[in-house]
Amino acid sequence: MDLSNIQSLQKKFIEDRKWERFPPTQVFVHLIEELGEVGSHLLYESQYKVKGAGHAGEKDSVDRELAQVFNLFLQLCIYLGVDLETAWSAEYKRNLERFDPKVWQDLADES
Ligand SMILES: [Mg+2]
After folding, report:
1. Which of 12, 10, 28 is nearest to 71 (CA)?
2. Is the Cβ–Cβ distance between 51 and 44 less than 8 Å?
3. 6-46: per-residue pLDDT in tens?
4. Are 6 and 12 in contact (CB under 8 A)?
5. pLDDT for 46-57, tens place per residue?
6. What CA–CA distance (Å, rounded) separates 56 from 15?
7. How would DSSP label each residue in 28-88?
8. What does each C-alpha distance from 61 to 31, 54, 73 come to in angstroms?
9. Model's pTM, two decimal places?
10. What SS3 class is residue 13?
């Protein structure tokens, strides 16, 4: 399934539930909340937080948290009228010109 199809499915999902009534600001805050839950996974993974040592542990799997982030990100794109596949393709082309792989390989080899 390509990105346009995924975005169309998410749009229908939103419309079927009349979630368009929620303003983009609330969707944005929800997106940040879910990103925070991904951050929590990283803190446990790096053992900065340890379950049973004053921390409750992770709520959902990291796969699920990332999927929730992606859903909310798509929802924000839909609200803002952004075709993510088109926008991503244009940004990818810009980045290919902007970040010369030779320069970055040399920098990595120096460090
Ligand atoms: Mg979550």
Report:
1. 10
2. yes
3. 999 999 999 999 999 999 999 999 999 999 999 999 999 99
4. no
5. 999 999 988 888
6. 36
7. HHHHHHHHHHHHHHHHHHTTSS-BTTTB---SS-HHHHHHHHHHHHHHHHHHTT--HHHHH
8. 16, 20, 18
9. 0.88
10. helix
User: Which tokens in the block code for residue 57?
Assistant: 């542990």
Residue with structure tokens 């390509």? 2
What residues are neighbours of ligand 1 (ion), with CB under 5 Å? 34, 37, 65, 68
Which residues contact residue 73 at a Cβ distance below 8 angstroms, ignoring those fewer than 6 apart? 31
Whole-number Å distance, alpha carbon 82 to ligand 1 midpoint, is 24
What structural domains and CATH numbers belong to the chain? 3-82 (1.10.287)
Distance from the alpha carbon of residue 88 to the mean position of ligand 1, in angstroms = 25
| CA separation for the pair 80, 6 (Å, rounded) | 16
